[in-house]
Specification:
The protein is of the alpha+beta class and 308 residues long. 43% of the residues lie in helices and 19% in strands. The termini are far apart.
């Protein structure tokens, strides 16, 4: 009976059990015998793994939450990995970040321990307790570069269009002594009044344009012909100049159907008097495209009326 109950618990916990859970059926001496025999393996202090269960990052993360107890949650880089935020989810992060109540003592055990004094908003991802998306982004603002934070923010906004509202609310509730780096997050949010980008490559392009002296572009701009028929949506453009800047990735644009559609749409765009420039990941690494864009905008001043 005890063995069946423990297996059911372990199945819900990535093959893990805790000392507190097994003391209902086993004495301390019986626990020691099972650890000595190899039937159980110590994952963390007072957290055991059933023999034969493979070790995974998710299992180790769950062990961290078991060790930390109620009120704790995976956070920072670990939370970013679980939310699949761009730039921070390519590989499981180590050490594993865990946030616990300020008054709780927790030895590191190879973990990176953070503490909080107010309520910690959290959710569950794959049965793992993790800080909420807004709290994760606020925490990240104190530990990652502005570039990585922008990647993470844009990828989150693609999936959650109301994220800006949620972040504004949570940032406003921060105490005055909250993370100073949250100011960077506020600045990035303020720059997104015209919407988010569609890919990490567009994030890089947007940062480069922002740091240049060029006029601010419109994002995700939809073009219609004189009859009101939809032509295409532009990644970046300057409508008064009728200059479009397309961001092309090999993965997205070199599928036959999309390739044909893009060629057709860009031909219609040219017929309406628009001039198109294209940037790829490789060309973005060189300044030539920015020089070409500046020259093109200068040659097509806003007051120039184009024939249609």
């Amino acid at each position: 009976m005890a063995g069946e109950a423990l297996r059911e618990i372990a199945e819900r916990q990535y093959g893990l059990i805790t000392r507190e859970q097994v003391l209902k059926w086993f004495s301390s001496a019986a626990i020691t015998r099972r650890l000595t025999s190899g039937a159980w393996v110590r994952a963390l202090s007072h957290v055991y793994r059933l023999a034969g269960v493979p070790v995974t990052w998710h299992q180790q993360a769950f062990a961290a939450t078991l060790l930390a107890g109620q009120g704790s949650a995976l956070s920072h880089y670990g939370a970013a990995f679980l939310f699949r935020l761009d730039g921070l989810s390519e590989r499981p992060p180590r050490p594993i970040d865990i946030t616990v109540p300020r008054n709780r003592h927790l030895a590191a055990h190879g973990l990176k321990v953070h503490r909080y004094s107010k309520d910690l908003p959290f959710k569950f991802i794959r049965n793992l307790r993790v800080t909420s998306l807004t709290r994760t982004l606020i925490d990240l603002s104190a530990v990652v570069t502005p570039v990585d934070l922008e990647f993470a923010l844009d990828s989150a906004q693609r999936r959650f269009p109301r994220l800006g509202e949620w972040l504004d609310r949570d940032l406003a509730s921060l105490p005055r002594c909250g993370p100073r780096a949250a100011g960077v997050l506020r600045e990035l949010l303020a720059l997104r009044t015209d919407g988010h980008t569609d890919s990490p490559l567009e994030v890089l392009l947007r940062r480069t344009l922002r740091q240049s002296n060029l006029p601010r572009p419109s994002l995700r701009y939809e073009v219609f012909d004189d009859d009101g028929a939809y032509v295409m949506r532009l990644d970046f453009c300057w409508p008064l100049h009728r200059v479009a800047l397309h961001v092309d990735s090999y993965r997205w644009h070199f599928q036959r159907e999309r390739f044909e559609r893009d060629a057709r749409q860009r031909s219609r765009l040219a017929a309406l008097g628009w001039l198109s420039l294209t940037v790829t990941r490789q060309s973005l690494a060189h300044p030539h495209w920015l020089h070409d864009l500046a020259q093109t905008l200068a040659a097509r001043e806003p007051q120039l009326r184009l024939a249609v």
